[in-house]
């Protein structure tokens, strides 16, 4: 007679080995998914804690990608260019903006990352050229390591020529922390790039100090008015915007206003003088295929508008 204590109660140890392994794998997968899910939610609100190996692995795996934010002529609404914006397509955390990871990139990887950005921009320009005129440009940020590399101008010129592109189709944006009293190397690199036909833009203009000194000492073709001056409601900031656009016109510089999100902002900027617009009012950053769709639609509409009307 079997007593309750002698009954064979099924347990993990009495299951067939195959089922044991299956249960262990299943429970491990669930734990891993939960860890990744909650880690992802946590990191959406916090800076990433990265090691150089993480950045190097992402480079090797092609996880750094470019999104493009169109730059628009407000009079016609046509896209005249685009800024290449670096993104990290993280395998667990999704698409990350540069403020989440760029400060963690070690300096010795800046050159390699900068090379990838330029190579991607040139490849995109090759694709865009099939739809747009030669006047279309792509803007990329130039980092501090590239600014100190005297071989960089000739190196990038060689890349452009190999692709059969024109230097004027690539614009280099100098980051806001460039030293207006630039070192010999920085001045040399920017001057050589300018001499080769590349356009130089001073980014985040008006956000810091000594920007007028930068206009005097560096070969600048364009200023990009910082979004902090555009998005504010303070009259003094709008007066500054107007003065910057007027001064740029007098100096023969082109102007792009960043961070434009409302019709009111657009109307004010247009009233101040010739200016190109970059901001959510027209377009958010997008992958290359979406940009190509918009450019194809723009080209088709222009062709239809120029067709002769039958009488």
Describe this structure as you would to a colleague:
The chain has 311 residues and is of the alpha/beta class. It has a single domain (46-301), classed as EAL domain (TIM Barrel, Alpha-Beta Barrel). Helix content is 45%, strand content 17%. The protein is built from 11 helices and 9 strands. It has helices spanning 17-43, 52-60, 110-129, 144-147, 152-162, 184-195, 211-217, 227-230, 235-251, 263-272, 288-306, and strands at residues 64-72, 79-90, 94-96, 137-142, 170-174, 199-205, 222-225, 254-258, 276-278. Strands 1, 2, 3, 4, 5, 6, 7, 8 and 9 form a 9-stranded mixed β-sheet that branches. Helix 5 packs parallel to helix 6 (184-195). Residues 4-45 have low confidence and may be disordered.
Give a brief description.
With 311 residues, the protein is α/β, with parallel strands linked by helices. It has helices spanning 17-43, 52-60, 110-129, 144-147, 152-162, 184-195, 211-217, 227-230, 235-251, 263-272, 288-306, and strands at residues 64-72, 79-90, 94-96, 137-142, 170-174, 199-205, 222-225, 254-258, 276-278.
């Amino acid at each position: 007679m079997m007593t309750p204590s002698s009954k064979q109660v099924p347990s993990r140890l009495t299951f067939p080995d195959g089922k044991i392994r299956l249960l262990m794998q299943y429970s491990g997968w669930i734990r891993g998914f939960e860890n990744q899910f909650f880690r992802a939610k946590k990191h959406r609100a916090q800076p990433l804690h990265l090691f150089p190996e993480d950045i190097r692995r992402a480079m090797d795996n092609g996880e750094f990608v470019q999104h493009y934010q169109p730059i628009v002529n407000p009079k016609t609404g046509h896209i005249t260019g685009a800024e290449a914006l670096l993104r990290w397509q993280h395998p667990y955390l999704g698409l990350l903006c540069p403020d989440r990871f760029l400060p963690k990139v070690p300096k010795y990887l800046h050159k390699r990352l900068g090379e990838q950005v330029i190579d991607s921009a040139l490849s995109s320009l090759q694709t865009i050229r099939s739809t747009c005129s030669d006047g279309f440009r792509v803007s990329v940020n130039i980092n501090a390591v590239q600014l100190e590399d005297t071989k960089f101008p000739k190196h990038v010129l060689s890349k452009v020529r190999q692709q059969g592109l024109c230097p004027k189709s690539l614009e280099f944006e100098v980051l806001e922390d460039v030293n207006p009293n630039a070192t010999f190397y920085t001045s040399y690199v920017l001057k050589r790039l300018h001499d080769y036909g590349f356009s130089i833009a001073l980014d985040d203009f008006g956000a810091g100090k000594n920007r007028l000194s930068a206009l005097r000492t560096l070969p600048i073709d364009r200023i990009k008015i910082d979004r902090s001056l555009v998005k504010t409601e303070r009259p003094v900031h709008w007066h500054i915007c107007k003065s910057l656009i007027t001064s740029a016109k007098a100096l023969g510089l082109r102007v792009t206003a960043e961070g434009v999100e409302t019709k009111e902002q657009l109307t004010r900027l247009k009233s101040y003088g010739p200016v190109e617009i970059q901001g959510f009012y027209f377009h958010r950053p997008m992958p290359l295929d979406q940009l190509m769709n918009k450019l194809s639609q723009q080209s088709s509409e222009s062709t239809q508008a120029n067709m002769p009307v039958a009488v």
